[in-house]
Amino acid sequence: MNIAGAAKLSLPLIVGLGALAMIRPIMKMTGLMDLIGQQFGSILMTVLISLAWLIIVIMKKVTDPVRTLVLAGVAYALFAIIVSGVMSPILTGHLQGPLTNPFAFVSVFVTNAIWGLIVGAIAQGIRKGRR
């Protein structure tokens, strides 16, 4: 994927980073998050996923970490919505989650794009500091 005049973005990397973030909802669905506590576990996993994203884009020398991680956040949002739509009827007997509420649907995308923006900006700052 290459937009005229813009740095080349790696679709496999974006999808992979988005998929990596799925560890958090999978831990919640399987009950692993209950072992460390829902609130603490959610925060801990967000921090660990953010660190993983940061380390990966820095180690891979991604030329546009901000756009890459914003799109990774959007990919994660899409994956989370799909998994929620498939798994909630199986686990609870009825559809739950963002697919039942248009505001939540949009909120999931916006929140995760902002998450990617923040981590991407940190990566960009680190990259500029290394020059």
Plain-language structure description:
- With 131 residues, this protein is mostly helical.
- It has one domain.
- Helix content is 78%, strand content 0%.
- The longest helix has 29 residues.
- The N terminus is likely disordered.
* Number of beta-strand segments: 0
Assembly form of the protein:
single chain
Overall outline: globular
Distance between the termini: 26 Å
Protein name: Phage holin family protein
Organism: Paenibacillus favisporus
Transmembrane segments: 9-27, 39-57, 69-91, 103-123
Keywords: Membrane, Transmembrane, Transmembrane helix
Properties at a glance:
Phage holin family protein; 6 helices; mainly alpha; disordered N terminus; 131 residues; globular
Question: Can you lay out the helices and strands and say which pair or pack?
Answer:
Elements: H1 11-20, H2 23-30, H3 32-36, H4 38-59, H5 65-92, H6 102-130
Summarize the structure.
Keywords: Membrane, Transmembrane, Transmembrane helix. By secondary structure, the chain is mainly alpha-helical.
